[in-house]
């Protein structure tokens, strides 16, 4: 290739790159199919035309990120945004190894005007909710123990009320068909053999012959009949990168190397091995690199929270009475943040009989409805 032609090619490449950079700078939406910006990024891009609104938005976002209220295992709230008080709040959730987290916002409109996000403890965005009809939903299911911050924020200058839910779910199927938490009668860590060892699993009781099911899709790595576990099955689960141990079975209905799907019957409850003097039950264990882990969070069933019912709402309220306390959770056992008697408050929403409020100095928390006096306009 001649020197002249090489220069032409170089100039063409430089020109294309320059054109792409300028296009992205002035028309970034042309690249959304590549960049796939979050809902927050898209909204903030529109707000750049209105610096005052963008500053207000960023201030609300910072408050939400700094919130320290706790949502617990199963939480619901009526969240309210008005033209004067846009909704912005953050919720801390502690996730055990083996648990997943779901968060949803149910809306009246199919056009989302709310943002729902999950951040890790270092402030890194993990996931932004996906819009589906009139619902925003996100699902964190990496299965690792962690503290998450769920951030909820409405668009500015809208009047809207939505139903927010944040709740945990186990990663695995309950290993006895049709049974639940009440069937677990012996938990991880209980002393065995006079204290010489501890229980490395959960004992789940049922009648002899009750179906034992695969807790996840996987492959049967071993079918054995020996030792303490008697008739036992080992299932390799790639979802949680672990091996499931089913012991004391009366019957094994699978073979080594067989592929199974979540919910498939793989055996029947019994009391073989060292369980021959006890009522029939399944010993269910989970083993990861390094040894056994507590299986309870992997299978413990948390109820999906019911919808919260709306309380009366006003733009401004006052803490009323000496017992007007701001708490970290919507119950009397929630950690005390501070007393808010005579404080002017903004109401964000309510979780059943507890108002979710924010103080004049930006602290968020919960106060019982009996301790809040609404100010008439």
Automatic annotation (TrEMBL):
Q: Which InterPro entries match?
A: Cell_wall_metabolism_enzyme, Dup_hybrid_motif, M23ase_b-sheet_dom, SH3-like_bac-type
Keyword Secreted listed? The answer is: no
Indicate the segments forming the SH3b domain, all copies: 323-371
* Any one GO MF annotation of this record: metalloendopeptidase activity
Q: Which residues cross the membrane?
A: 7-26
Which keywords fit this entry according to its UniProt record?
Membrane, Transmembrane, Transmembrane helix
**Domain M23ase beta-sheet core per the UniProt entry, residue ranges:** 198-295
The protein's superkingdom reads Bacteria
Pfam families to which the protein is assigned, alphabetical: Peptidase_M23, SH3_3
Task: Kindly provide the name given to this protein in its UniProt entry.
Answer: Uncharacterized protein
Q: Which organism is it from?
A: Nonlabens agnitus
């Amino acid at each position: 290739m001649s020197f002249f032609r090489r220069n032409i090619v170089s100039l063409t490449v430089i020109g294309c790159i320059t054109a792409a950079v300028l296009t992205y700078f002035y028309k970034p939406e042309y690249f959304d199919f590549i960049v796939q910006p979050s809902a927050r990024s898209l909204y903030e891009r529109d707000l750049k035309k209105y610096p005052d609104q963008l500053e207000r938005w960023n201030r609300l976002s910072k408050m939400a990120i700094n919130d320290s209220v706790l949502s617990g295992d199963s939480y619901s709230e009526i969240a309210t945004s008005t033209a004067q008080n846009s909704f912005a709040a953050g919720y801390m959730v502690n996730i055990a190894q083996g648990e997943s987290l779901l968060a949803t916002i149910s809306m009246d409109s199919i056009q989302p005007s709310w943002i729902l996000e999950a951040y890790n403890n270092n402030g890194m965005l993990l996931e932004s909710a996906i819009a589906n009809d009139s619902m925003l939903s996100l699902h964190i299911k990496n299965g690792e123990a962690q503290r998450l911050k769920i951030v909820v924020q409405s668009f500015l200058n809208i009047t809207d009320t939505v139903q927010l839910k944040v709740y945990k779910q186990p990663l695995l199927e309950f290993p006895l068909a049709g049974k639940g938490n009440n069937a677990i009668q012996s938990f991880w860590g209980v002393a065995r053999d006079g204290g010489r060892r501890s229980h490395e699993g959960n004992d789940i009781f049922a009648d002899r012959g009750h179906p034992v099911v695969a807790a996840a899709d996987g492959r049967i790595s071993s079918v054995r009949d020996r030792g303490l576990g008697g008739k036992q099955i080992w299932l390799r689960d790639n979802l949680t990168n672990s091996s499931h141990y089913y012991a004391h079975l009366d019957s094994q209905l699978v073979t080594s190397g067989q592929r199974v799907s979540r919910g498939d019957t793989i055996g029947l409850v019994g009391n073989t091995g060292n369980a021959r003097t006890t009522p029939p039950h399944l010993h269910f264990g989970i083993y990861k690199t390094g040894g056994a882990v507590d299986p309870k969070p992997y299978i413990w069933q948390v109820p999906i929270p019911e919808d919260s019912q709306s309380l009366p709402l006003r733009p401004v309220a006052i803490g009323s009475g000496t017992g007007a306390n701001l708490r970290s959770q919507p119950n009397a056992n929630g950690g005390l943040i501070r007393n808010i008697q005579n404080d002017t408050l903004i109401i964000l929403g309510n979780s059943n009989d507890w108002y979710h409020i924010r103080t004049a100095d930006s602290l968020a928390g919960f106060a019982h409805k009996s301790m809040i006096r609404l100010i008439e306009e």
